[in-house]
Amino acid sequence: MEDFEKLGAFYLGRPYDLKEKKPGQGLVLYDSRDLVTHAVCVGMTGSGKTGLCVDLLEEAAIDGIPSIIIDPKGDLANLLLTFPDLSTADFAPWVNEEDAQKKNLSTNDYATSQAELWKKGLADWGQDGARIKRLRDAADFRIYTPGSNAGIPVSILKSFAAPPESIRDDNELMTERVNTTVTSLLGLLGIEADPIKSREHILISNILNSAWAEGRDLDIAGLIHQIQTPLMTRVGVLDVESFFPSKDRFELAMSLNNLLAAPGFSTWMEGEPLDIQQILHTPEGKPRVAIFSIAHLGDAERMFFVALLLNQTLGWMRTQSGTTSLRAILYMDEIFGYFPPVANPPSKLPLLTLLKQGRAFGLGVVLVTQNPVDLDYKGLSNTGTWFIGRLQTERDKARVLEGLEGIAAGSGQRFDRQQMEQTLAGLSNRIFLLNNVHEDGTEVFESRWAMSYLRGPLTRTQIKSLMQRTKAQTTAAPPVPVVAAQVPATAPAPEPAQAASPVTSAASQRPVLPPDVSQFFIPVRVGEGNSTLMYQPMLLGAAEVHFSDSKSLEMTQQVSLLATINDGPVAVDWARAETIDLPFADLEQTANEDAQFAGLPSTASKAKNYTAWKKDFANWVYRNQRLQLLESPSLDLASNPGESERDFRVRLQLLAREKRDEAVEKLRQKFAPRLTAMEERKRRAEQAVAREAEQASGQKMQTAISFGATLLSSFFGRKTLSLTNLGRATTAVRGVSRSMKESSDVGRAQETVEAVNQQLADLDAQLKSETEAIQQAGDPQTETLEKVSLKPTRANIDVKLVTLAWAPYWRDEQGQTTPAWQ
Ligand SMILES: Nc1ncnc2c1ncn2[C@@H]1O[C@H](COP(=O)(O)OP(=O)(O)O)[C@@H](O)[C@H]1O
Ligand SMILES: [Mg+2]
How far is residue 821's CA from residue 809's CA, in Å, rounded to a whole number? Predict the structure, then answer.
């Protein structure tokens, strides 16, 4: 197995000879990079689609690639059933009791037989417990259960949060996002709405659109409130009242509120936010296999959730950098109903966009269906990989043939319809036809034995017990209280744990300052119902600090500090100042209306004090400001300022994969032609042996081609070698010729064969050693990162301003104050 591990080659199975009805030689290795053009897997129920895709997801996990898995039937949770010891005790809790009873076995005896079955199955495919352990260790496996507490619950509250700027700035994407969100929300309410005709749809779309365009988040409670009292006055040319009278709007608001107040609905509000960036890796930067189990949901809820998840994935994807390597997988088992050719459910548009744009961002989409007629062919015409399993009806076969013919035409390949028809007819369980546009021709193969125990759908209780430990470890966000319709959900910000409030006595008049003392106002960013706004005089220091190191690393950091001003001997102490996250440009020239002002210490009204404070500030920055970075020794790269270790490791992993894929590609270009040429020479030499032997014996011999390919040469040579050469059984040309050694011509020809064989072995050894060099590369997920701390030079500190800044605070009736700018 070692030959291809760590090269980004997914071990999916071995070639299968349909005529002989037996496995061929070699392995079927799939290039991880090919998946960026997506894959589709079709075949009738029981044909082994899910099994094959479990293989693929296992291989991806081993390769450090995270995946988002949508699991409508509950089969994919089997990915958590991995037992390196393959013991009876491991299997016993998971075996299907009914199957045991049918076989008249006790649970334990049945578990023993299943464990044996798995051990043997894996051994037949060259796999063992060590590889299972490797899989388990490679990723964090999780089952999320939206709307349920069985697995890890998912909070959808955030889903009405404004999408990232990359989406907001793109008109088309933004319209799509608004549309699908509204359609799925209305679907949840049982309203099947036409985006163009339904006034519900139009109104909510308008509300979402105007909030999001300004970067404002909404939650369901806020939405309910706005449906009743919309901020806009017109919809199109009509005023809101005649477009959608308030009496009717109230009804819509009520049905949303009822949804919110329904007893089961609170589980939709608890748990982890649907934040794809956080879901794809653990806090330590380990890839995650995130299984979203939706078997327990009703149809409308499923659609709502799937559309939401797809939209979130789309939003996440758009914030990623471009790559040519595989970054993550989005997998959906049984796509039925979510991607139909004619209708337009809320899931379809985001899925289409993901298929269209995923490639650039390294997101590989894998879709599975038992019914090829269910798929939107327009969306799939660009899908690079097809896994076609056993099909049931002639209509299904015809549909698939049509699809394959289209792909062949698109890539200028020859298409033999009749032969393909025969192939499709010959497929049986776990035997698939692989059509990959990145390779020449098609290949029939048998899927390898899955490492995960494929016991079928897991029950709620089983999911619960699988996720119990994980749930205990994660400190889930506290449940958010359900808010009734009339009360807008502006939860008060928690009181900051500040010992002394800086707000002193109030003097509601704004103090008068000499003209040479500059002053600014910090903008009010958070609102606070009944409190009074109070301005406190503070000293704001802001600087730009430039860092550089020997390795051509250049970075600039902003430092802004807010210090109190006192009348005592030490008027300003920068060491006790607070950092404030505020671009200079946001400072305002005028105060908010109706605000009160605290008294001004006399030191603050003398201009020359500011000159001294400015010098102090520069000194403080020089002594204290450091740029803390992490450096990866294996990739010789430093983290960005503000980048967490986790995010840095996630970034490094992709970089390492890109480098690896590039190195593999180079090796391929270097070795493939040499391997091809060598194998051709070998073929000719063997033919010569056969010819000579034939002449010597006077009897017609069948010439067969021996293809002494090792795993490596089949992996590296596959993309250019004609596939008809591959996988043919070797016949014992050598054995035949040995018996005819008396002919010297045969002997000479035989010597040539051996010489070529030797050269081929040498080439293979060379390839192997160069491959090892790629495999040796350090693992950025676990390597020790070096900590670097850079200090600035005095010349590199650019103090932008040290000025009197009025800081706004909210003061409630009890005299408690909270900052109003953050
Ligand atoms: N790769 C595999 N390794 C071991 N068993 C498999 C594999 N693929 C399929 N099977 C067996 O075949 C059964 C049906 O396969 P499955 O993948 O569930 O079919 P489908 O998803 O096409 O309906 C599985 O329950 C399992 O017992
Ligand atoms: Mg299945």
Answer: 8
Given ligand 1 and candidates 53, 430, 452, 455, which is best to mutate, with the most ligand atoms within 8 Å of its CB?
Answer: 430
Q: Quick one: tokens of 598? A: 């605290």
Instruction: Spell out the residues 6+ positions from residue 219 whose beta carbon is closer than 8 angstroms to its own.
Output: 157, 160, 489
User: Other CB atoms closer than 10 Å to residue 751's CB: what's the count?
Assistant: 12
Q: What tokens were used for 374?
A: 């269910």
DSSP H helical ranges for 348-416: 348-361, 377-380, 394-410
Q: Residue 730: what pLDDT?
A: 34
Task: Report the SS3 class of residue 557.
Answer: strand
Across residues 38-44, what is the average pLDDT?
96
pLDDT at 498: 37
Residues in the chain: 822
What average pLDDT score do residues 391-410 get?
87
Angle between helices 220-228 and 199-213 (to 10 degrees): 120
Q: Which residues line ligand 1 (CB under 6 A)?
A: 43, 45-51, 55, 121, 430, 447, 449-450, 454, 456
C-alpha dihedral over 764, 767, 771, 772, to 10 degrees?
A: 70
Pocket test for ligand 1, best of 40, 448, 454, 455 (most atoms within 8 A of CB): 454
> Cα–Cα–Cα angle for 241, 242, 245, nearest 5°?
55
Are 645 and 285 a contacting pair, CB within 8 Å? yes
- Considering the chain, what is the average pLDDT of its residues? 85
The angle that helices 394-410 and 417-426 make with each other, rounded to 10 degrees, is 130
Which are the contacts of 403, defined by CB distance < 8 A and separation ≥ 6?
372, 377, 380, 386
